[in-house]
Structure formats: structure tokens, C-alpha cells
Amino acid sequence: MKRMVPVFLILGLAAMMFTSCSGSKDTPSASSGAGGAQYKDTLNVVIESEPSTLFPYDQNEFYTETIIKLIYDTLIYRTNDDKWEFTSEVAKSWEYIADNQVRFHLNDNIYFSNGEKMTAEDVKFSLETANTFTRVLFYKQLDKVEVVDDLTVDVYTFGPNPALFSNLAHPRSSLISKKYYEEVGKEGYARKPVGSGPYTLANWNTGIAIDVKARDNYWRGTPGTPNIHFSFVPEAASRSVEMETGAADIVTSPDYNDLDRMTGLGFEVVAKKSARIAGVFVNYGNVPDLKIRQALAYAIDYPAVVEAVYGNMATVADGIFPNTVPGYEKNWTISYNLEKAKQLVAESRTPRGLSLEVMSYDQTETSQLAEILQFYWKQIGIDVKISQNSFATVQKRQSAGDYQLYPMASQYGTLDPSRATYQFDGKIPTMLNLPPEINAEFKSYWDRGATEIDLTKRLAIYKEYQEKIVEQVVYIPIAHKMIAYITSKNVEGFYGAPGGITTLWQVKVKK
């Protein structure tokens, strides 16, 4: 079959802004390490967008969660993102009392940044509050949390919950101060957070940067660098420029087509398989004709799109799960077939004059993907318009079901299949606007998978679940993404997490 490739694919979408806009912060340091090495007082990190909030329960931005991990602690800690290993954090130990009840014993030396000591009441309040927010990974999964004494809590779930520990270790399960939250609420916490983590918010220059500073006497030890400066640079190419000019020590989500060049310039490039998958959510209620949804899928030249947007940092997706998640199935068999796509449109209830909106946001890859998809879908007679939004806006619109087509890269950092299906779980019916009977079926699969302890049985449930999602074409998988970071040669102690949520509190930068 002859491929139709738009001009901007051939050109590699090379029209980029190379204007550096963030600036760095660098205060000379007198600190020294082993062997007398001198270290900077400030670690400069360039991220791709500005956080919508620093309140942990009301966001799902992995770049935001990198900052949240510095300001807050979680009940337990995942020692390695590649494995199911957990260790103590706020909880020093735990044990199962029953299949649906875990008892956590808390450390006795943890204080919030406002000087208040953390108690079991704060843990209970944190988890119960988080349980009411739709973007929290254990949303509505906790039955109750009981205080046993000042340093002991019992967490109850609705039956067995195999994903509980992964969810509790995630930044969206961070612990907050009950007293402070009751004083300022979610809105106050969003811009002036109080946590028990190694850093506290020092400054938020809207649209430009966030600064955090190390706390004195942090209970786990002294942070690696006294200050961390996060600058917001949406253009991937511009983030590389920040590294070249010395304004950055670490760059997240760099321009993948620029990695070889950056390596040649002497920078460290960390690249690995990730828990990310890029695809398109198709709102059933707003695109109700199955033939149209199928036509949209057949109209895409997947290898060409992956090459243009992600280069060698992704492979063509052959399933709706990231290929690092247990239960991943190669169940997506649709491939580029322009004639079939046109035929499906002709057989649909709307053969002519169909107009659809692609909801996009201000992130380089997402914008590129939206533009390329617009080209392919126009080839089958669909008038596609792209609306650009802030990421905070698209989050709200997705939850409300106020969209038709939404290309995005989903991040499933817990590597649990229940997480990889949460956007199809039926608990927020408006998200996909599914008919009641399909919504109920999806919810049933998710509920059974999220409570089955036997791994073989659990994965069999998710296999059927994925087949149902594929059958309805409410999601079009595009690419299994890799993840990359760029650091200077002087950075020490950096670990590039496959989930994208990096741990920076022990990172140092030599002068």
C-alpha cells in the first residue's frame, strides 16, 4: 500500500523554538564531599510544564510529582521502580491483620515543615481525604482508616487489594497536615504546601519557575543539595539548549531526536523502557458510531507517526497496556489501511460533513501528535480542528467528558494493571461517556481485577478486560514510549526512574 506522508513528517517537524527562557539559579557553595569535592548550593532542573497544583491528591502530572516527592512523605517507599519492593518511610513496619486490614506502625520523629509533629490522626486524615479525590490511585478503594494509638493506624480496604502497597507508595498518596488543611483547604495547599518531606516550597514564580529549599533536621538525613530550582520549558528542543548553555543540570523529557548530539557534546543521557504509552482517547458518547471510531484507527500510519514524533525512543504499540506492565497483551491488530478507513466512513451514520475536535495541550510531543493525526484523519474526509489547552484544563475536560478525541501519553508509574485501566474503570462515567451497560461491564472487570489476589486469575481478568476495550475502540494505542533524561557530567546520585517520577533529594552537583 502506498504511504501518504505529510510534508512536516518528512521535515521532522523541525520548526522549533530555541529561545532559552528559564534562567538558572546558582549560588557558590562551600560544601564539600569525599575527597574534598566542592558541590553547588543549587541543583537546576528543567521540566516540561508548570505544575497545576502542589496539592498531591488533585493532579496526575509526573513532573509535578517529582516536586511533590520533595515536599511530602508517603506511608511507605518503593525502593526500585522496576520491582515490587517496598521499605519503610513514615511507617517503620506493617503487618496484615486480615485480608482487608493492614496495620502500620509509624516513626516517632516526623515533623511537618510548619513544626507540627505528625501523628496517626494526620495519616488517617490524609488517606481518608485522598480517598475522595478521583485522581488518587486508590480512589474509593479504602473502606476506612482507624487510629489504634498515636503511632499506629489500621487501613481497611473493601476486600483484598493487591495494588494497595504500590498505591500507598505513590506521590499521590502523600501525607498532609490535618490541622493545616482544615485551616486553608485544597486551594491553600495548592500554592502553599505543608509536608514532612526533605524540602519546602521557597518560591513559585508563576509561568517561570519553582524553588524549593532543604529543611533543617529532616528525619531521614541531610538533603544532597540545599536548593533545587525547577524551570518550566515546554519546548523539548529549548530544554536541550538549557543544558548546552549551562543553565540546567538535569533535563527531563528531552527532544529524543537530539540525544545522540547531546551525548557527543559530553552530557550523560539516561534512556530506558518506561511505563508510558501514547495513544488517543476516543469519547464514546461524543463519537458514538463504532465505524467512525474504527475508521479513525485504520487511517493512521503508525510506524510513520512513531518515527516522526518519537524517533528511536518508542516502538509502535501493539496493545493498550504499556509493555512494562504485568498483564500486557499484544491485542491491537489494527494497522494502516486508508481504503478500509474510507469505506468505514462511507458505511457510517455520518458519511459526509463530519467534524471532530482534537483536544491538545501545550506539550511538544502531544502537539506534534495532534497535528499529524489531523492530517491523516482529513484524508478520510473528517474535518479535524485542534484546540490547544493548558494541561490543567484538559484534565478537567477529560473527567467531565467534554472532548471528542484526546491524544496523550499516559503514565502508569505503579506498574500495576489496575492502574493501567483506571481511565476505563467506569467509576467516572463521564470520562468516556459510555452507555450504561458497557460502563457497568468495564467497571465489573476493573473491580474483579483490583481485588483478585491470585496472580494467574488476575491476569486472565485483565486479558478479557483489554479485549473489551479494544473491541469498543475507545482508545487507539500509538507508541510504547521509552523515557530519557539528560544530566551534566557533574551530577551525582541521579536515578532515572522508568515511571518518570524522579527522586532528587540526595542528588548533588559538583562545581
Automatic annotation (TrEMBL):
According to UniProt, the name of this protein is ABC transporter substrate-binding protein
Q: What GO cellular component is one of the record's annotations?
A: ATP-binding cassette (ABC) transporter complex
Gene source species: Breznakiella homolactica
Q: Does the keyword Transport apply?
A: yes
Signal peptide per UniProt: 1-24
**UniProt-listed SUPFAM superfamilies:** Periplasmic binding protein-like II (SSF53850)
Domain of life according to the entry: Bacteria
Per its UniProt record, what InterPro entries does this chain match?
Peptide/Ni-bd (IPR030678), SBP_5 (IPR039424), SBP_5_dom (IPR000914)
An individual GO BP term: peptide transport
